[in-house]
Design goal:
It is a single chain. 22% of the residues lie in helices and 31% in strands. The chain has four helices and twelve strands. The longest helix has 21 residues. It is globular. The protein starts with 7 loop residues before the first strand and ends with a strand.
């Protein structure tokens, strides 16, 4: 696996990010003296309206727009590769309007999945993370969602065991994603003992590989278990996605 890119500073937002691809970064970590707060909406709302909610919340917290560091979206169904690109162009345009991009790079981490049950009728904001002043004894961070893609831009050919959902194929997919997330986690200057939430997104059974392929690999974080969202990754053909975070403050927002 190639070495991750160096972290870049978002001084106005008091966090650092691990560069990723145009739609999102690979992860974010708060700077010294600050911490990441994770906010979940009690009910998702259309994603463009969600940015208005984020704006109001940040102003109420006396934080700039630049403090926004991660986004979690829910979509009606997985996109085609072309549809995903189209959606990302509109999403990135909003970040451009917010003056979030840093020399053309997107610092915001993201997860974007399609629930099997209870999916929204249009792409919607489910949760977001932002920084506030406050020192912590451990780093606070968000590792962006990752699916079982070996090569970005390679289409279906870059997907691990594409078209397969047998227990062994799913185990191989999960192992690949675990490796990606672990690499990103350590690139952010954190490690498994710093993780407080592990999210898994798949519509396939995970019981056969959960203990050995996921939990035993997380060391001390295994005590927290995982949260399994019966959801599909954002692009048709992907079957398994994960994200991670380590925070000391989780809040729920009324809409």
């Amino acid at each position: 696996m190639s070495q991750p890119a160096s972290l870049r500073d978002v001084s106005a937002g008091n966090f650092r990010f691990l560069p990723g691809i145009p739609p999102f970064s690979s992860g974010v970590v708060a700077m010294s003296g600050f911490q990441v707060v994770h906010a979940t909406l009690r009910a998702p709302i259309p994603w463009r309206d969600g940015f208005g909610l984020i704006d109001r919340h940040l102003r109420a917290e006396s934080r700039p727009r630049a403090a926004l560091c991660a986004i979690e979206l829910r979509i009606p169904a997985p996109f085609s590769f072309e549809g995903f690109d189209t959606f990302n162009a509109g999403y990135r345009a909003v970040l451009t309007d917010w003056k979030i991009l840093l020399d053309g790079e997107n610092p915001i981490a993201r997860t974007n999945v399609a629930p099997v049950v209870g999916a929204p009728s249009e792409p919607s904001l489910y949760a977001f993370s932002y920084t506030v002043p406050g020192a912590t004894t451990r780093p606070t961070f968000v590792v962006a969602g990752s699916g079982e893609t070996r090569e970005r831009g390679a289409g279906a050919a870059g997907i691990v065991r594409h078209g397969e959902t047998s227990p062994e194929a799913m185990r191989e997919k999960a192992a690949h994603v675990m490796s990606t997330e672990a690499t990103r986690l350590r690139a952010l200057g954190a490690d498994w003992p710093d993780v407080t939430i592990i999210d898994v997104y798949t519509a396939e059974p995970i019981e056969t590989f959960l203990p050995a392929t996921i939990l035993r690999q997380t060391g001390a974080a295994a005590i927290h278990g995982i949260r399994w969202f019966l959801s599909r990754p954002p692009v048709a053909g992907l079957e398994f996605e994960m994200d991670l975070r380590g925070v000391v403050r989780e809040i729920t927002l009324e809409v």
